[in-house]
Structure formats: structure tokens, C-alpha cells
DNA sequence: AGGAAACCTTAATATAAACTTACAGCTTGA
DNA sequence: TCAAGCTGTAAGTTTATATTAAGGTTTCCT
């Protein structure tokens, strides 16, 4: 996700930019405030962080200019603190308003919420677990390895999920069975073995034959 | 626009409700806090205002419950004031956070911004959903594929809409039934199967026989 | 090394989830 | 008021997946 930062205070600009990059965002920082529109058009960012107090024209002005051509999500920053400033920001076409000084955690959280709302399709691609090249998609019950994929059944999926949640520690068979079937008394010991085997076979087809290790007498583990 | 208000403080509830109505919103106020889900399902509001401190379960809990079946815009209210509360609210699936006491102007402005962002399709007149060549018209319940079309019944339409809204993720049968019939206890399990079959038949006639995939034991999915 | 417990493999069988088809009660509108 | 279409129910069938069973390995301990 590409974020455009429009902020004239160098300290804040750098701090915000750095933190966002640490979080995996791509950033575009404005340094020449008369070229905001060019930069916006060239980079086509997914979200804009806009300070209100700027040299020459203010943030509202630029928001207006941008809104003429785009519905990009926009969060205003400002040290002003009257309700009128918030109301203004929203009415000018902004999506949120954060008062300075602010916590970066809050900015990130608000950005994520807004991005989720705007680009909701991205949400579905984010609920996954990963380990050593194997990606387990929690939404559609698929495992991926590189460009290969395989469908898991309900039980296989649960087993893999439990093992990945506990990666690095041994999960013993009894515990596993209790999670899978609640009353372990009524299902055969061997049922788990067979399910593990099926899961291993599918992982093997993805080239990860030894993803799950047996610890004899103790249980299974993903290392 | 219909707004659901979940707030146990009677003074605030009435004040908010009155003001919203003065602004032309339709309001639904929760009075029995164990019936939030029923009310939500029955009214299907466009936005939810959610207090965090509630009797028995808190606002985060109900947010989670609602998020299992809906992406409705949600604004949290709370008198707590640490940055962590804001971050929590966003991470739980909220869109915004307003600290009490607040100005009604601010609430209204934030609501409007969020509604504008969420329902922007209303402005652009593109009341359709599209995926993989299938276009669902939200106005008249028609599906299009290329130059072919087919009329859907109410139930078929809802099923397809729910699946398309959640494309890429498995929607389990129970959740589906809860959305379709509110009180799942009174309709047969098989009714859903039959409706899915009828919908599939129509999609099949448009040449999209395998648009909806069954994940046995898990639910249905559009990939 | 030898034996036993723990685990694996394969294939047959059972089971419950989902599908199909047919039908009857309702609505709706001509 | 009667036909047409929507909707849910029922009964019987299919099918994906879980389970059982039987015989084969591996591992580890004495």
C-alpha cells in the first residue's frame, strides 16, 4: 500500500514516514508544496495523510483539488482542537481527523481501518498463517507452497492449523484428538494417524513431505 | 439511512436518537441488550453506533458478533481515553472512535464521512456487484453473464449477494441461514440446499455452472 | 540383537453432509 | 378466482470424507 504524506514539519514527516515503512507501507513524501498535484497524479497513492497548516495554501485547499479527481482515502492531521476543525475536515471530503500530538499506533490503526473499508477485497487475502514456505489460508481452507496449492478437508485443515499455531512445540496426540473431536473416547487412535497421513500426502504433493515431524511417544511438531 | 444505536445510558441514547432524527436519519435504538443480534438482523441498518461499556457483554463482543456476518460501518463511543482503546476499537473491526463527552456535530460529520465512503456506489449509480464475468444487479435482482441474463428470486438473490460480498472466503451454512431467515431454528437445513441448487441451475444456464463451490463440512465459497 | 510399543499404509466400509426430485401451501397479479 | 411462480418440506440418493481394520514399518529399550 502506497501512502502519500503531506506535512511540512520535517520531524513529523520523517517520523511518520519511517514508522510506516517499518510497517510495510510504501511512502511518498511531499517536499515541494506547489507540486502536490503532480506528485499525486504520478504516484496514485492508496491513502493520503494531509496536514492542515501548510505554507501558502492549506490542507483543505489541496483536499479540494484532489477530490476533484479522486476519492482516495484521506486523513487530516492538525494541532487545532476545536470541534469545528473536525467537522470542517469531514465536510471538505476527509475521512478522519487526528489531533497532534498523536501516537503512531493510533494513526496506523486508523489507517488500517480506513484501508480495510475502502479496499475491502484486500481483507480476504490477509487471514493466513505462514511457516517455512507453507501458507495456510484460513478463509478458504487452502494450503499454498510457491505457486502450487492444495485443498484441505475440514479435519486436515484443523490439524494443520493446530500444529502451525503451536509451531516449535510438540503437540501430543491426545491433546490433538481432544481439540478435533471433543470426546476422544469414541474415536479410534488410528483415526488421527490416518488423517495425519492424508495431510502429509497433500503437503508432499506440494514438495513439503517432511513438514510435520513425528516425535515418537510424544506427539507431532512443526519445526 | 438507518442507524442502529447501542448505548445503555438513556440520556445519551435519547439525545443522539433525537438529533439524528432531526437530521433525517431513521434510528433503531437497542433497549434489550441480549437481543442486539436479532434487532440487527431484522433491521439491517446502514451504520451502527456502539458504546463500549455495556451491561453483561461489552461493545467489542457485539462488534465481533456482527462482523461475523456483516461489514456494516461501525463507530465506537466510549469515555475511556487511552490510545489503546482507540487502537483496540479499530482492530476489532470498528471504523472510528469518538470519546465521550462529544459534540453531536462531530458525530454527525464523522457519520456522514463514513457513510459517504461506504455507500459511495449510491452516488455513482453503479448498483452492481461483479465477479468473474457474473454481474449481479442489486436493484432488480438480475444476474448477467455476457449478453445473457436470468431473473433471481429473493432468496436466490440474497444467497448470491452474501457469497459475492464474501468472495474468497468460506461462508458456512449456519451463518448463511442466519442471514437469510433470522431465526434459523424454524427452517429446515435442507431448505438452503434446495435454494443453492436452484441458484446454481440458473447460473448454469448462463454458462457458469461451477460459480459456487461446496466445501463439504465447511460451507460455500466463490473463488 | 530381539521384541514390543508406537506409528504408518492401504484399502474396504460407514457415515453424515449435501444433492435431487417431486410436491404442496402460499402469494400475487391478471 | 385461477394460473403462475415462489418457497419450504419430505423422501430418497449420491458423494466426499471419516473411520475401521489388518498387516507392515520404524524406533527404542533391555
Task: Describe what this molecule looks like in 3D.
Chain A has 223 residues and is α/β, with parallel strands linked by helices. The first copy, chain A, has two domains: 2-125, Rossmann fold (3-Layer(aba) Sandwich), CATH 3.40.50.2300; 128-221, Winged helix-like DNA-binding domain superfamily/Winged helix DNA-binding domain (Arc Repressor Mutant, subunit A). Chain A is built from eight helices and eleven strands. Chain A has helices at 10-22, 36-43, 59-67, 83-91, 104-118, 154-165, 173-181, 189-205; strands at residues 2-6, 26-29, 47-51, 74-78, 96-99, 128-131, 134-137, 142-145, 148-151, 213-215, 219-221. In chain A, the strands form three sheets. In chain A, strands 2-1-3-4-5 form a five-stranded parallel β-sheet, sandwiched between helices. The longest helix of chain A is centred in the C-terminal third of the chain and has 17 residues, at 189-205. The radius of gyration of chain A is 25 Å and the shape is elongated. The two termini of chain A are 32 Å apart. The mean pLDDT of chain A is 90. Chains A and B meet through helix 4 and helix 5 of A and helix 4 and helix 5 of B. The structure holds a DNA duplex (30 and 30 nucleotides).
Amino acid at each position: 500500500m502506497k501512502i502519500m504524506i503531506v506535512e511540512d514539519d520535517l520531524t513529523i514527516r520523517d517520523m511518520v514516514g519511517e514508522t510506516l515503512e517499518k510497517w510495510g507501507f510504501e511512502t511518498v513524501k511531499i517536499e515541494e508544496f506547489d507540486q502536490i498535484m503532480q506528485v499525486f497524479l504520478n504516484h496514485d497513492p492508496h491513502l493520503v495523510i494531509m496536514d492542515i497548516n501548510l505554507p501558502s495554501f492549506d490542507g483543505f485547499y489541496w483536499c479540494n483539488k484532489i477530490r476533484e479527481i479522486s476519492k482516495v482515502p484521506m486523513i487530516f492531521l492538525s494541532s487545532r482542537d476545536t470541534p469545528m476543525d473536525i467537522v470542517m475536515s469531514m465536510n471538505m471530503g476527509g475521512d478522519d481527523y487526528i489531533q497532534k500530538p498523536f501516537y503512531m499506533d493510533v494513526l496506523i490503526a486508523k489507517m488500517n481501518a480506513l484501508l480495510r473499508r475502502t479496499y475491502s477485497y484486500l481483507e480476504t487475502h490477509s487471514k493466513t498463517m505462514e511457516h517455512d514456505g507453507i501458507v495456510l489460508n484460513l478463509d478458504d481452507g487452502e494450503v499454498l507452497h510457491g505457486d502450487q496449492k492444495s485443498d484441505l478437508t475440514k479435519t486436515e485443515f484443523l490439524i494443520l492449523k493446530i500444529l502451525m499455531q503451536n509451531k516449535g512445540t510438540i503437540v501430543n496426540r491426545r491433546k490433538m484428538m481432544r481439540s478435533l473431536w471433543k470426546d476422544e473416547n469414541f474415536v479410534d487412535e488410528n483415526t488421527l494417524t490416518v488423517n495425519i497421513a492424508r495431510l502429509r500426502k497433500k503437503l508432499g504433493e506440494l514438495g513439503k513431505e517432511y513438514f510435520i515431524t513425528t516425535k515418537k511417544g510424544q506427539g507431532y511438531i512443526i519445526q
